[in-house]
């Protein structure tokens, strides 16, 4: 079965510092991996995805994620955090066949302090 | 495009009452799905549809019904509300899996069952 794990409930960083939000996955075969962000009282917004190719994926708002097959990880990163990046972040893996079924992690709350 | 819209935004029900959560999309997406979001549990798939007239169960389907009579609409029905169904409900849509596209989410419905 497909699954993702986000080991940190919360990540705190200072504005201007680099940030990392961790995600590990468990899938059969090659994974399709996604990151979404949720701002308070809003729906989820797509940030980036890894399907195949370059292990470093660039996405919206300056975010990027590194796919590491040997460590089964897909960590979300940003070189310089902004206070406005404070939100809930979800990692997700998608079924490879059939319906576009997503399996979401439990979410990581990112707090960026001025 | 309005994207994915959901109504109502907030709802309070008494145990045993029934109601329908509305979801509509104007992107001509084949796939639509319903998730519930509970603290510390991420998003869990309730039901999904791969096209008009075709629906199937997700991870947590009990107590919910769906139908898909048009491409645009995918309502979620609570047959007899229970306090355990207190949650935030999100509708999502996407193109067919062959395009490996991300899902687009609505703004959510916050449901409280007393």
Q: Can you tell me about this structure?
A:
The complex is a heterodimer of chains A (about 110) and B (about 110). With about 110 residues, chain A is an all-beta fold. Chain A contains no helices and twelve strands. Chain A has strands at about 5, 10-15, 20, 25, 30-40, 45-50, 55-60, 65-70, 75-80, 85-95, 100-105, 110-114. In chain A, the strands form three sheets. In chain A, strands 2, 5, 6, 10, 11 and 12 form a six-stranded mixed beta sheet that branches. Chain A has a four-stranded antiparallel beta sheet with strand order 3-9-8-7, with no helix packed on it. The mean pLDDT of chain A is about 90. Chain B has about 110 residues and is mainly β. Chain B is about 0% helix and about 50% strand. Chain B is built from no helices and eleven strands. Chain B has strands at about 5, 10-15, 20-25, 30-35, 45-50, 55, 65, 75-80, 85-95, 105, 110-114. In chain B, strands 2, 4, 5, 6, 9, 10 and 11 form a seven-stranded mixed beta sheet that branches. In chain B, strands 1-3-8-7 form a four-stranded antiparallel beta sheet, with no helix packed on it. In chain B, β4 and β5 (about 45-50) form a beta hairpin. Chain B is globular, with a radius of gyration of 13 Å. In chain B, about 35% of the residues are buried.
């Amino acid at each position: 079965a497909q699954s993702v794990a986000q080991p940190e409930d919360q990540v705190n960083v200072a504005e201007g510092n680099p940030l990392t939000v961790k995600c590990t996955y468990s899938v059969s075969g090659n994974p399709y991996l996604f990151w979404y962000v949720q701002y308070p009282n809003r729906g989820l917004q797509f940030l980036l995805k890894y399907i195949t190719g370059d292990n470093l994926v660039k996405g919206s708002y300056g975010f990027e994620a590194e796919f590491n097959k040997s460590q089964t990880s897909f960590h979300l990163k940003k070189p310089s955090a902004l206070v406005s990046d404070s939100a809930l972040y979800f990692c997700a893996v998608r079924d490879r066949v059939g319906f576009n079924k997503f399996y979401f992690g439990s979410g990581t709350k990112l707090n960026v302090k001025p | 495009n309005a994207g994915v819209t959901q109504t109502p935004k907030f709802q309070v029900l008494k145990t045993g009452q029934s109601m329908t959560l509305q979801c509509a999309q104007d992107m001509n997406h084949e796939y639509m799905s319903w998730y519930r979001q509970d603290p510390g549990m991420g998003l869990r798939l309730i039901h999904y549809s791969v096209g008009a007239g075709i629906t199937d169960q997700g991870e947590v389907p009990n107590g919910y019904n769906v139908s898909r009579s048009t491409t645009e609409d995918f309502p979620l029905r609570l047959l007899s509300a229970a306090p355990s169904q207190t949650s935030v409900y999100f509708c999502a849509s996407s193109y067919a899996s062959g395009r490996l596209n991300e899902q687009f989410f609505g703004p959510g419905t916050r449901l409280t069952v007393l």
